[in-house]
Amino acid sequence: MRNPIPGNRLRPALWGWAAISVLLLGAMAAVQGFGSTASERTFVVFLVNVMLVISLQVFIGNSGIVSFGHVAFMGIGAYTTALLTIPPILRTSQLPELPTMLRTTELGVVPAILVSALVALIVAAIFGGGLIRMSESTMAMATLALLVVVHTFLQNATTFTRGSLGLAGIPVRTKVEIGTVAAILFVLLGRLYKESGPGLRLRATREDSLSAAALGTNVVRARYGSWLLSAAMMGAAGSLWAQSVIAFNANQFYFAITFALLAMLVIGGRTSVSGAVAGAAIITFLTDSLARVEQGVRIGPITLPRISGTVQFAIALLIIVTLILRPEGLFDRWEIDDLLRRFVPKRIRRAPDAEVELLTAPVPEAAPDDRRPPVLAGDDIAKNFEGIQALAGVAIDVRPGEILGLIGPNGSGKTTLLNVISGVSHPTRGRIVLDGHEIAGLTAHRIAGLGLSRTFQNIRLFAQLTVRENVEAAAPPGVGESGVDAVLASLGLMDLQREKAVNLPYGMQRRLEIARAVVRRPSLILLDEPAAGMNEMESDGLLENIRRIRSELGCSLVVVDHDLRLIMKLCDRIQVLDQGRTIGKGSPRQIAEDPVVIEAYLGGPSTKTA
Amino acid sequence: MTPSEFVQQLVNALSLGSIYALLALGLSMVYGVMGMLNFAYGELVTITGYAMLAATYLGAPFVVVALVGILAAGVASVLMELIAFRPLRNASFVSLLFTSFAVAQLIQGAFRQAVSVRARGVPVPDLLGNAIQIGSVRISVLSIITAAIGAVSLAALTLFLRRSRAGLSMRAASQDFTTARLMGVRANGVISLAFLISGLLAGIAGVLWMARTTSVNPTTGFVPVIEAFIASVIGGLGNLRGAVFGGFFLGALEVFLQATLPGSLLPYTQAAALLVVVGILYVRPQGLFGQKVEAI
Amino acid sequence: MTDRSVTDPLLAVDGLTVGYGSVLALRDVSLEVAAGEIVAALGPNGAGKTTLLRTLAGALKPRSGSVRFDGSSIVGMGPESVVRRGIALIPEGRHVFPKLTVQENLTIGGITRSDREELRADAQRWLERFPILGERSGQLAGTLSGGEQQQLAIARALMSRPRMLLLDEPSLGLGPIFVDRIFELVVELRDAGTTILLVEQNVHRALAIADRAYVLSVGSVVASGPTESLVEGELERSYLGIGQPG
Hints:
With 610 residues, chain A is an alpha/beta fold. Chain A is 56% helix and 11% strand. Chain A starts with 6 loop residues before the first helix and ends in an 8-residue tail after the last helix.
């Protein structure tokens, strides 16, 4: 069975997890050896905070969308556990109207956790389906509504919750040992999810949801998956929390704790699991120390008066300071294993000596094939935006193995045509067939799944992901580690594979864009201004790369560019657009000599004598 | 429902809706110009309440008390932008949201410390507690005044936006900030103005809210602001007309639910209204007047 | 490069370098525009022409280099200040305020001026000069056609009575008749005293009205001089890549 997480991501994740686990176990030993009951209590609070914040981060950190509502799942988990673990006598005395089935069931610690996670999951599934389709700011508001709705329910469904009086008598099972083990498991789960295929693709949508969709990721489904997982984890964490506090009421699951958890993420690191743990430590420590200050404390000869609200105040200040000075949080986007790597000598990975073949299958004909049906056939494609007719009825056909150039002056509709074909935008009318499938009006990710890839004019890389991760995020299920290696090697990106995409020089960024498109093994690749900003030498290199891609993958390409020298040398046929219509189509020579084309580019016949 | 009850509820809806509309408008205005959701907006209502409290202790007549409240909110809003948001002017949407969340907590904490955790009563003229009788219909004076003040405020704001140069600058900036700057519209000026106006709107809404609830505590601003957020989202974020519509819609929805829900479910009025709105957003994620974003 | 008279140029750009992230859009660009000239900046897409105008207008900050307008430096100033110095930009793609009326768009163009009466008179003048705008003065600008929006964008920029106008691809996406009108207008404006720096892809048209031109490629100036000296065949070749070996 194929390894679900490739080695290059799995290894650092496991190392990072091991490092954190060692730290947690060490802390546990220290607390048990030297600590008082009070510090044991604080340590358990810390461990539960770790579990809560990691559950929250599974969603917020990976999707980039803020959810204010996750504490609702914590509450659901806590109440479920309370209802199923409080000794029956105590239970029925607090909740006399409880249905019979719930009166006597008593669950052990693990079953309670699992059932709580399940209930939270169900609620999340019901609400999430709608939420996840909204835009990011709307969704943030909708999760706020979710928090209020669940809180209102927990406060008023007194038959089950005893409202503001709350429930008491929950057996304390989350002790130091169990808590530490649980926290370690949560860290493992959080880290593994982040590095998994679904987690990586979700992170890609966080970086650039449009290009992620155009490279095959179903954005809604990716978000929904992490929504469900984080809700279940939150429910489980809520259960563990309930089994540490003995008693609680509905007011616990509202803004105070939401604020504290968000603070942990902001201060520690929104996207880093190690950061989340650090954030939990900082906030727990701060809350604990300041709680003592709030009681009034003696510092040497000075006795401070009782000050209420210092905790909130301090946390709020710390958030603001962090956002100004270190906007991504203490750990920024680094995991603890990234930092450790600085101290470990680099194992130099030997790059393959020769250019690696992209496919081991026999290489199909390099020349365009007229006999087989076209890879792409579009007819009468039109697109209107707010009164402007960007495309006024364009026909296009691309033969198997062909490189078609698409040129035209600025504003002629070239990029619009690419957008309509790739599903980034929907045509006002027209028919487009890709490899026998009707694709006009389909979503971008579905079209990508049918065999189309593209690059973008203004580079849309997954900026904070590494070069390798960029390619892996685009890779379809059939392509494994070696497939990714091959693509990286053939485009000269192997040495840079651990660099973040945003740090690459411009030419490399363009190559990475192409690598992402190539790894999908498409039948048609759309390249939008791949030579923009390149000098002659660079664009010659690009030309070689494109030719090689065509022959090794056996695919077709449509290339839009303004570098007409490149287009003339590279393309088998050229189509010229002007003002949303096709004004020329033919071989490079034909196009270069076509007076209509020349006029469109340079403007009307010359009025100045040479 | 009898016709007279209906009229009463209608006036109620207009009155509650006015308050939500004013708040939703303030939120949308800042979003339109700066692209940020200000989580600390509700605190301006709290500030209004406490300012009114202070003015009352100083013996001022109610009209002055109300004006003090409104001005306090306006000033606080401008200060909030200057101190907390300007340093982060180009930060991401999420960073600004978190910052505003933190600012909200700071202000709440400050009031908790400086005044008290418990609610304090804000005296309100007896006149507002009365009701007038028209035929078989009893309508509370407060509802009428609230609706009237809401209407006047909205009209004044519309006039300002449509007729004044500053208003024109704001409208231009919310449509295309960069081009507005190229015309010479000062970025800082227009943002401060947006915060000032939205602060004054919060102040007016705050005074009306105090008149309804007659008490203030550190978390007072919280309830109406959640409504305001949801209302501005129904209308389509950044869309001012949509915000007003959203506010009235939500107010009417709540009043309607209050009147029709059975007694046992009454505590769920707000929750039910929110669920209805989330349902609407499910069908139309861009809000009722928002623009649908293509792709994905 | 050019024989200039004794007076200093109105706009003097020296060693301008502008970048976005890891990309250098302009590398060490220098150019001059004398008062009363029409200067064209030509070059294929991606050459940096729009970046140049946006930097001059203050919408982008350069990494290095100097920009002097009428003798004083304007480098690093925000767009609000640059327009108050007398330079107005008509951006690529027009960027009219879609939900403001034609009249309101004009008013915004003059927002930096305090002489209300004159402002009203100017607006009236432009509405008469462009009858289509006059007809639609109460209409929302977003409902106008491309050519009408372009006229509005130009009139709007002129409301601030700029000494210098930066025009970014005014003929973009417009039909030939409108293009004629726009270029006629540009000459008219120059004759009335406004200095013009024009970025255009439509080489023939631009050279027909410009006094001098600079040719940009991949962020650098590769040729410049009076329009007569720029040989057409060479330009065509660099644009269309014809006649090149391979």
